[in-house]
């Protein structure tokens, strides 16, 4: 490969202007650890790849979408019925959103179980968790845009949960809805969040996250380091370019294959146009990534002691999120001893809670 | 690895990537091309009451999706033309001071037969028929 072996003569013009030599030198020195769990390194890249697909297909959908209650549903209907490949582009956008969140969750849990959040990678963890939060916000805001019955009621419930936050809840719900209830103002606002505010913040955070990954390099699991040090060897490394890059490219291709198959075989449904004066349909539920909190809230009684049930649930979720975000800081004791079992236990518990409650929320 | 085998692999990888890229770009370009939306064909519209437009006055009326300029030239005469300037698509207006049709965008002037008098318009304005039915003005396409 030309990039790995040195600059070709004809790149002199670009070299003078862009300084490609430094990039080439960086790529030549960047390596990736090779061990039994190297495969988990690919999920960060897959998440990024699916995000790029989101940006591209979202930009295409913007050419026809109209963000008003009178036209939103009809414009999406127009896209999927009249525009060439419109059904496919919309289906890819919806499926890749879901696969991106799934991939981000796999990436997060692999970081936990491989303990890649350890010092000095605390900020990489925090920026990654913030990116996952942004991905969920993308999902929540994008869900309303087709203005169908399910998305309308999901937004009503979601923004109503925000209203239960102590002290600022009412103001927060008003801010999200652009008024007292979900309506045209909410749709315009969510559209703005979805196509301008969230992409802007995500781009900045993503650049920080990637810069931190570059700065600290790929983390090797402690047990792999110890295993090789017992043999008196350093952990084997693979050149990032072209070895790891080409493997990552194949992983993207596989992800694309899964995405294309899902989008073509199971086109994303549009549903029925939202009617603010219609009753919520039976069996209504949110997207799979919100099913666990949705089902938990179903189980909490209306009052727990003197407190409102919704408030108790929300506080519980808040504390759980805070505890999870702070993982790199409680994973090591003050004496500097790693709480390995605590971390593994917490990861297994959270994974079990999310999968069990999501499944229960789906089927019950 | 010998050179012919390396070249074959290079071609396979490059060809595969190029084919993939084309298969992604084709639907994207097709998607960007807006579909033709057939408009309901309009042959005639009611343009208002006779008494609403005095002589030496003009107004734009909607003819389906197109603007049509209706001009009440004299007590007994009415004229109607396409309201779209043949230069660069601006909507024209009636100038009562000079009894001409004027396009404000590039100062194109047409007479009351729709012919170009001055300015950049390359073609005359398409003329429509005007009939009076009772007290109503009706504009229709010329046969």
Structure notes:
The complex is a heterodimer of chains A (364) and B (143). With 364 residues, chain A is an all-alpha fold. Chain A has a single domain (2-363), classed as Cytochrome Bc1 Complex, Chain C, CATH 1.20.810.10. Chain A is 68% helix and 3% strand. In chain A, the strands form two sheets. A two-stranded antiparallel ribbon of chain A has the order 1-2. Chain A has a two-stranded antiparallel sheet with strand order 3-4. In chain A, α6 (86-113) packs antiparallel against α7 and α8 (149-163) runs antiparallel to α9 (169-177). Chain B contains one helix and ten strands; from the N terminus they run αββββββββββ. Chain B has one helix at 3-32; strands at residues 44-49, 57-63, 66-72, 78-82, 93-95, 100-103, 108-110, 116-118, 127-133, 136-141. In chain B, the strands form two sheets. Chain B has a six-stranded antiparallel β-sheet, with no helix packed on it. In chain B, strands 5-6-7-8 form a four-stranded antiparallel β-sheet, with no helix packed on it. In chain B, a hairpin with a 5-residue loop joins β3 and β4. Chain B is elongated and about 95 Å long.
